[in-house]
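Follow-up to my post from last week.
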Amino acid sequence: MTDFAELNPPQRLLLGPGPSPVHPQVQRAMAAPSLGHLDPELLRLLSETSELLRYAFQTKNELTLAVSGTGMAGMECVLGNLIEPGDRLVVGVAGFFGARLAELAERMGARVRRVECEWGRDLGFDPLAAAIKEETPKAVAIVHAETSTGVLQPMDEIGELVHRYDSLLIVDCVTSLGGAPVTIDAWDADAAFSGSQKCLGCPSGLAPVTVSERFRNAVKKRTTPVHSFYLDLELLCRYWLGDHLYHHTISAPLVYALHEGLRLVKEEGLVDRWARHRSNAELLWNGLERLGLELHVPRVRRVPSLTTVRVPDGVDEAAVRVKLRDDYGIEIGAGLGPLKGKIWRIGLMGHGSQPANVALLLAALGQILGRD
Amino acid sequence: MTDFAELNPPQRLLLGPGPSPVHPQVQRAMAAPSLGHLDPELLRLLSETSELLRYAFQTKNELTLAVSGTGMAGMECVLGNLIEPGDRLVVGVAGFFGARLAELAERMGARVRRVECEWGRDLGFDPLAAAIKEETPKAVAIVHAETSTGVLQPMDEIGELVHRYDSLLIVDCVTSLGGAPVTIDAWDADAAFSGSQKCLGCPSGLAPVTVSERFRNAVKKRTTPVHSFYLDLELLCRYWLGDHLYHHTISAPLVYALHEGLRLVKEEGLVDRWARHRSNAELLWNGLERLGLELHVPRVRRVPSLTTVRVPDGVDEAAVRVKLRDDYGIEIGAGLGPLKGKIWRIGLMGHGSQPANVALLLAALGQILGRD
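User reply:
Got it. Predicted complex:
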């Protein structure tokens, strides 16, 4: 059997597609004494976390909380509470995570119409509108910031379009929440989910979720129970915000982390935080171009927290990532699906969005590529 | 809006039904630098964690890992990977968590036959055998240590019984793993799940799961996909132990915690650890009896990590718990379901199983009840 040593993980600067660097104050918060999941003090923190999440999501939705899992659990939660076998869904597939939305919905028995586009573009209003008109689906699910391509989907008028057909709008905000303008009520979105390990500066493990009254009413009209007990939103809402009936043993250190991460979002202010992500992204974009590298997405559509760069011809993309990791202690991400081997993915998320990180990464990349 | 202060949770000695006190070395491990979910060093830790879990479960099952959620996610994972709508299940309901197993299975569309008994007794072999013979179910699910009653279910011959009818044996080991003899292969069990926050001395957030080849073969024979992507065991196995294909962003601090918690289990040795839980439980049992309190379960059936004590006539059970919490900083648990108001639940789990904790709790209880 292995001789298990006490763990001693290396220091890494996490500039990939997430997780992002944990904010030092979040790290400190996690070390606070653990509380039971029914302790009045923990329940108070849940209530505050819910209020802080409403601010981060820019929503008045009562049912705003975090499910005990990663962003993928958030996605599964939103889809699973709504979908019954046979339901029709329109899903925007502009990359890997749009494809995941479609796959999850199909596992749940939904009939899915995919609206597709090239990986590196946004969905476009007209193809979405045409599909929705044809399908009159129960819901339309799209990704706001597609982490696989670095494209930010414009949200203008999509809510109005969806509701014209009595459908519900579901938005994946995993990579945008806290790093780019997410405005659930202004979008008129009915459900959104995110992760804690991207622009909120926390470790992964809790997935923020918010749903509208319209969404809750649609769930009430189900003829079958929600398949998942663990992710049943009304039970979770009762535990978080109602009479606190025991549901599951929420992880105190993860609650502390999310509470502190969101408190820091509030302290910085969303507008300033979005601007910081934007200005550091521009520093990065300009620097990459000065290195002679080509960005995968037109500037007007770029996600500020996640930049995709094309791998130059003749360069071994994996070797560059390994060198960055082993010689410089920096993690960046590889491409997924059709973009595998073709792009790198660079995240400047949450506490990771800092000019010093941009400077170090550009310098390291320059050295490795011999372009300094 | 609330004026959100930096958090400062009170110190609590967690002697309830879980979470249990986090071991100081686990706490320290969580503060180690975060790694990405595809970092080779993190993947090495997952492989070691799997090996350590095999030791803790006493199994050779290849598919042994932890799902990214609490013990409830572990329960949902095991049931959800197996059950297709219409499947017949026999579920032992000797308390709240047996009832949960049945509820979850029914949500998934299973036809559930409940084998029930009084809350405070074990299921008994004959009623189980009769139900299995009658139903010839796809699987039989029982709780090893019923956290709501404090009863340890004898496991002798149940595996043989279940397999005689070509059925699969699923065991809930949430409160027993690491605190009482759990021997998956010797039991001939096909699936088991647990939580990190009980006798493993970690915070909650990861749920150990192990399944046999027989179980995996049954899953392969499904005619519908597993409903949950997030809890799909074959995908999780591929990420943890195969080619590490991206599945979800596992939480590095929770992995560090579980790895360290399990390393400490290995260091102490399972037999010594079981003996420690047993001897501290006996200290508690004897002390409670000296205080004139009545235990809810006959000694031979007691869970060493979770003791149920009857609330004496005329005593306000909630007031005692609040006084323990507010004046002594000690958390114990209330009764659930039919035992609400009738019992207290005292956990001596993982790092919490210490003579000093027993001494303090007995002294505090004696003072509060005026029996010192």
